[in-house]
Design brief:
The chain folds into three domains: 316 residues, ABC transporter transmembrane region fold (Up-down Bundle), CATH 1.20.1560.10; 157 residues, P-loop containing nucleotide triphosphate hydrolases (Rossmann fold), CATH 3.40.50.300; 74 residues, P-loop containing nucleotide triphosphate hydrolases (Rossmann fold), CATH 3.40.50. 63% of the residues lie in helices and 9% in strands. The strands form two sheets. Strands 6-7-8-3-9-10 form a six-stranded mixed beta sheet. Helix 3 runs antiparallel to helix 4.
Amino acid sequence: MDSKQKPVTIMESYKAAQTVAGENSPEYKKSMLLFVAAFTAEGLAYLCFFPLLACLSDAKPLIGSAALWLCVMFVMVVLELYFRWRGHDFDFKGTIVDVAHRLRLNLGEKLKVMPQERLYSYKTGTLNNIFSVGVEYCVLSMGIVSSVIIQTVIPPVLLIVVTFFIEWRLAVAMLVLFCIAVPVQKWQRSGSSKGKKACGLALARVESDVLEYVQGLPVLRSANQTGERSASLQSALQNHRNVQTKVALEIVAPMVLMAGIVEIGLLAVLTMGVFLITKGSLTLSVAAALLVIISRFSEPLSLFSSLTQVFDIVDAALVRITELLSIKPLEVSSEPTVPGQFDIEFKQVSFAYAGQDQYALQDVSFFIPAGKLTALVGPSGSGKTTITKLIMRYADPRKGTVKIGGIDLRQIRQEDLMKNVSVVFQDVYLFDDTILNNIRMGNPDASDEQVRAAAQKAFCHEFIDRLPNGYNTVVGDIGGALSGGEKQRISIARAILKDAAIVMLDEPTAALDTQSEVAVQKAINTLVADKTVIVIAHRLSTIAGADNILVVENGTIAEQGTHTQLMTLQKRYASMWDAQQRTKQWNIAAA
């Protein structure tokens, strides 16, 4: 975190809250104006003590005038309660609940359209924190926190202004106290703001590591790396503890100083008042009124100081949410086009991931014909996955163009692009829902019969039918109730139901046993019929019959052609093929 980063100002918080309020922004503004009116009335009610006590302390008490000022005070109190109640309509009428609900929906929409490169830069724990407590803190700022800030500012300002007309020296003393408190509060705010941001980052890291720990617990148990031996989680917890300790020390000093300034300053003002009484410059009734009002003057300062940490937590949440909402989606032409053909072309494409100077792809050009099978082969880290990401418009290349059906991806809306692309990953992710709903994700409008037909084509209907609840069986977190082959076939059924023109396969059979691999391969054969297929392959024997093979190495296309053509060249592909064949022979000999 940038140590020079300034804490968010009240005006910045107000503007951020307006952004979060969205279409309810006018109601939010109205709420703030009502709070201003409420606490102005409150300040005026306290100021009535000056004429009220003056009437009562007269040698011959002016009962009628005192009664009048009591009525004025009563009216001010009633107005204060009325305006405050109406100000909280934003809370009581459920508007703030609607804002929170719509904010989560807007954040969800943002995740759908933001560049995947930016999306993957967020840790899961950070996003979880933003969607849960972050939203709650944001809507909190629109009601309770905003009213507290207004209550802290308006009554003291009114008091100082009116006191100038009664005894300017006391007003100057209170103004000096107020001016001294402001920089101390800024100091406290600065330390608290940076501390809360640091705590937020540390907590997000803990949440991410806890999530990863829980998901990977079977692996950690098998490696005996649970509890204190889980290095990553323990490091995150220790870091969070260290940050909390440091922040606590940074916050305590200015908080104690602020309390001391308020108490000593007010005592000094009262001492000056007593001195002025003894000199005859101040009447006892005015001093008594000041005593009552100054005690009210101290409350907002103390309250504001003690709530500084709350404000900073709210501001940190506002900043994170507004930053997320401000991320712009990848630009699309003002006249978007839907591809009619599904060949794929890379033309002099160079790409580097965000924050990296080294190119993952360098001047890559190739053409994938529609309806053909193209394989990507090469060592890990060579750029194979980056090619598939760019086809899905993970990000735009720094140089060159990626086209589908002769149309630059920048001219295709993301939803139109993804309608025509299906992906079967090596690591299948299934949601903690029924098998029926997991398959239906490929086409939300599909009927139960269509889902079952897709499952039959993917050769998974038989094992689903044997389950106690059939298609209504809940697969568990990340599909934990199913085997790897079963999960893979369900993901293929999902892709079959989607029926996209382009299919990308990321070595879907690499981690399967022989029996599961045969079943999955049959399902894949059904899936890819008459499709444009790109497959990432490590076992070259599985793609020997491909229409075209691209050998990717160090971010470039080292060679391309059919299996026979590449073997004839006797270059990189032939070397990889021979190495894998020798490995098979070694395994047979060992057996």
